[in-house]
Structures are given as C-alpha cells and as structure tokens.
Amino acid sequence: MMKNLLTVLIVQSMLLVVSLSHTTAQSAWTLQDCIDHALEHNLDLRRQHLQTDRAGHDVRQSYMQTLPGINAGTSMGYSFGRSIDAVTNEFFTERIASQRMSASASMTLFAGFSTINNIRYTLARYTALRLDSEATKNDLILTIAGAYLQILYFEDMLEVASQQYELAEQQLERARILYEGGTISRGRLLEMEAMVAEEEVRLTNANNQLDLSYLEMIYLLELDPEEGFLVVRPEEIDVEGLPPLYEPGYILEKALNVEPAVRAAQKRITMAEKGLSITRGQQLPTVVLGTSLGSAYSEAVTQMVGNNQANTMLDQLAVRHPDINKRDNNDAVAWEVVPYRDQIRENYFRNIHLSVNIPVFNQWERRTRIQYARIDLEQSRLQYERAKNNLGQIIHHAHADALAAYKDYMSNTKALEAARESFKYSEQGFTLGLVSTLELNESRIRLNRAEVSALQSMYEFVFKMKVLEFYQGEGFVL
Fold this sequence. Notes:
alpha+beta, 8 strands
C-alpha cells in the first residue's frame, strides 16, 4: 500500500514539475502569436527580406540610369626640374604650381532599349524575390501550425495517460480489497500491480513526448529553451464544423492564383524575356551625348609690368632664363604671375560632343550571349511548369490524405465507442469475479489504443483540412 502511494506521489510530483515548467512564461501563446513571432524572428526569412530589399535598391538604380551622369574634379600640384607647363606648353626648369578643374556630363540617348528593359527586368526580379519570401512564410506557417497541433495532441495524450493511470490505480485498490476478502488470488493482484506499472511507463512516455514537442516549437520560434513556454488551447476543435472537402481540381484552380512559388516562377519568365531583350539590344548602336567645361591656372603664365615696350622680348627671356645677362634695371621690364581669378576666366573652355558606338564584330560574343539568354528563357518556362506540377501533386496528395484521415477518424470514433463499452463490461465483470485480470488488461489496452488512434486521426484530419484551406489563400486558423 505504501509503495503504491509513493508511486502516485512521485507521478503527481512529476506532473507538477512539468506543469510549472510550461507555465513559467509571462503569457501563454496562441497559434497566431506563434506564427507572428516566427515570421518576425526566423533567420532564413529575415535573410530573404534582406535580399528583397537589395533588389528594391536595384529597381531604384535602374530608374536612375535614365538620368544624365555628372562628374566634376580638380587637381593641383607642383612641377620641379625640366617640364612642360600644361597651360603655356613651354619648357621650364624652376618650380611651377598649377591647377586644373573640369566638369562633365553625359547622357545615353539610345542603347538598344537596354535601359527600359533593365527597368522591367529589375521590377520582375524584385517581385520574384518578394514572392519567394511569401513562399517561405507559407512553409514556415505550416511548420508552426503542425508543431502547434502536435503539442495539443501530446497534451491530450498526456491527459488520456493520466486518466488511464488513475483508472488502473482504482482497479488495483479494488483488487486489493478482493484479495483481502479472498475473492481473487495473489497472482491476480500482482497482475494488477504490473498493469499499474505499465500505465506509469505510458504516462512517463507521454510526458517525454510533450516535452520534446514543446522543445521543437521553442527552436522554431528562436526562443531560449531555459525560458518557460506554454501554448493556449483553442476553445474547441470542431471537426464537424469543418468546410466540405472540395474536389482537387477546384482547389488547385484557386491555389494557382495565390500560391507564391508559382507566381514567382512566372515572374522569372518575365525576367528571362527581358534579359533576352537586353542581350539583343547590345547588337544595336549606342548613342551618347556629352558636354564638358573647365579651366586652369599656372604660375608660368605671367604678364608685363612697366611702360618700356621695346625690351619686352629680352626681358621676358631674362626672367625665364636667368643665365641671360640682364640689362640695367632702369631699362628692364618687370613680370608678374597673372592673378588666379583672371587665369580662371581667360582659360575657361567648354565643348559638346556626340558619340556613336557601332558593334561590328566581337568574336561572336554577343551572339553567344543571345543563345544563353534563350536557354535561360526556356529553363524559366520549364521551372514554371515544374512549380505548377509540384503544386498539383501537393494538392492531390493533401486531398487524398484528408479523405483518408476523415475515413480513419470516423472508423476510430466508432472503435473508441465500442472499446469503451467493452472495457465498461470487463470492469464490471472483474468486480464480480467473472472476468480475469488478463481479460481486463486486454480490454484496457484496447481502450487505450482506441483513444490514441482516435486522437491521432482527429488531429491528422484537422491539419490536412486546414492545409487545403491554406493553399486556397484562407490562412491557417483553428
């Protein structure tokens, strides 16, 4: 008696620990809470969002390619030794400081329609990547929903195991009373104790499976396993209130219009078409309109200071070549560097030009690229057909699974009712001494299996039906 009481206390303590570990979270999580958290924190999905954002920048850049390009620059330096001044084009041996500044602008007038085709290409690519993210979101939602239903299933399994254990304990107590009254033998009492031990093992296994299902959900949600986590059970899963099971063709027709993977494959056909157009455009001439302006400054540019014009040439040579004997200072002409502002104004230049580049022969390179682009287009069309076929297989398979789960659920429901009646009869017969312990144990095992099968088929049927609803664009709501 004390041994069985100790066993009950141990099991109840274990259940209490598990319950506390699951309820230490600040708040319980509904299915929608789990989905929202996963969509926000999933690493793979966040990585795809970054790729989509980058593609969005590519779209903006493709639009900017329609604008002219403008550049400006300046350079300043010193020349030492014998060199040619860039402004005067004369040789000098002394140190000369100089500066040049310029600005230019160019605009492509025609490039084989590559600019507009590139805009359409980047738009299609951005849409395809965004749809890829939607497809990943859908896969994640289904995974989270499956893990959520698995938790509910194992919680029900734990409840069934607990009820079976309590029932076995009650039967054991009655068996002890019958044994003490001499109605049953000690062997039958030992069989009942073994039955309780088996139920305790099932209870422990149910606890372990529930803990593992919670751990799987925690990993899916990118949560800390050390923190508590608890899911909220829906008020009731109404199996009878589920929508009718439509034909696969009807479901597939709706799914093709909303399934992101199929739509992404379709957009990649557009990408390949525009890629082919861009490659073909490279065979056409390119016309570019450009303009530039600038100015320069140099210390080599000097001007005469004084009124003596007769000796201008000689004095200029004397200034630039010190080895020439200078004349009397009273007759010499003074020279000074032309001011910075005056040089910038006098050296100002501007031009406008139109350039045409005509591809004539490029070692068959462009023609090869066109062939590659055609192959890419054909591959994208095949991928689109593959995406549609895959969706069709998924829909037909899910439909067949849902139909089979429904039939299995109906059969297991009937089997459960029969098993309950059978066990009730066996329990009464055991009390009256008409049913052996072995027969009671077999009846209890059949009841346990029927309850497990009914629960499993019910959750399987609900999940498959919700998957079909999800593929029709109706979300996943219990």
